[in-house]
Amino acid sequence: MIGAAAQTLVSSAACGSDLLALKAAGDLGIRRRVILPFDQATFRDQSVVDRPGDWGPLFDRILSEVGGAGDLTLLGLRPSDRFAYEETNRAILSEGEALAALVDGGGGARVAVVVWDGRAGQRDDHTQQFFEEAMARGWSLCEVFSLEHAP
């Protein structure tokens, strides 16, 4: 079981599965590391409150907690950079690798949890890119399908 042995969750903080995973990890006392491509306010506008649902207050609370613990990283990328989210995915995986290297003599498990419908989307499908990058780096993958009849 993934959550039973998890020591740290490294994630971005977009609405939906990112924020739900961060909330659950916090509830379980698991360390949370959040990596954002650019400043918190812009990310909130572009990836949290621009979607249906009332995600803003959860984002604000989690970022306050994570920032207070010194576990918030802002990459300083430009919001207009079309590769900002891909760079963020790579930074998340690199941070996970660095943290795993500190566990069990460098043998800490690295598990990428990907919540999606199992199908690549449009050209800039950042979930697909994360999935492929994690696979290329040799991470264990755990897919959680968001649709009842996903592949």
Structure description:
The chain is an alpha/beta fold and 151 residues long. It has a domain of 105 residues: Rossmann fold, CATH 3.40.50. It is 42% helix and 17% strand. It is globular. The mean pLDDT is 89.
Mean pLDDT: 89
Cα separation of the termini: 22 Å
Order of helices and strands: HEHEHHEHEHE
How would you describe the shape? globular
Task: Report the uncertain regions.
Answer: none
Strand content: 15-25%
The SS-based structural class is alpha/beta
CATH architecture of the domain at 2-106: 3-Layer(aba) Sandwich
Gyration radius (Cα, Å) is: 15 Å
Give the tags.
single chain, 151 residues, alpha/beta, Rossmann fold, 3-stranded parallel sheet, two-stranded parallel sheet, 5 strands, 17% strand, globular
Brief account:
The protein has 151 residues and is of the alpha/beta class. Helix content is 42%, strand content 17%. The model has no long low-confidence stretch (mean pLDDT 89).
Which SSEs are present, and which pair or pack?
Elements: H1 2-5, E1 8-11, H2 17-27, E2 31-36, H3 40-47, H4 56-68, E3 72-74, H5 84-100, E4 111-116, H6 126-136, E5 140-145
Helix pairs in contact: 5-6
